[in-house]
Amino acid sequence: MTAADRSTDPVAVYEDNAAALADLYESVPAEVVHSVLADLIPRGPGVALDIGAGSGRDAAWLASFDYDVVATEPAAANYDVASSTVLRRNSPECATIRDFGRGRVVSRSCT
Predict the structure, then answer these.
(1) Domain-by-domain residue ranges, the chain?
(2) 68 to 2, 36, 86, 90: CA distances (angstroms)
(3) Is the CA virtual torsion 12, 34, 27, 66 positive or negative?
(4) 26-80: pLDDT as tens digits
(5) Is the pTM value of this prediction over 0.90?
(6) 3-state SS, residue 48
(7) Which of 17, 51, 60, 70 has the fewest CB neighbours in a 10 Å radius?
(8) Which residues pair with 105 in a beta bridge?
(9) Do the strands 67-72 and 46-51 form a parallel or antiparallel pair, or are they unpaired?
(10) How many CA atoms lie within 13 A of 51 on its CB side?
(11) Contact 55, 27 (CB under 8 A)
């Protein structure tokens, strides 16, 4: 893929800028981003799907509601960032990260 092609491919852009974008996303807590929705989300147990999980911020937040979260992320660099975010925000015995193919994360909360 040429540099010009990479600049117009969304997955490539996320791959090339994963750390900077993760820092940006993590600078605003999910509780703030989704404050108008938080009261509408029933508490788990349950299952949630986070498509385009990015830094894993929202997947970790959903796991705090006692959801099993399946978070898909097509950019492999973001998959690594999301895995560490989910593990950092959930105790190791309550979070499992499994690779079901390129860029899929599963986290479980035990709140």
Answers:
(1) 3-108
(2) 39, 22, 12, 12
(3) negative
(4) 899 989 999 999 899 898 788 888 888 888 888 888 888 888 777 777 777 777 7
(5) no
(6) strand
(7) 51
(8) 71
(9) parallel
(10) 0
(11) no
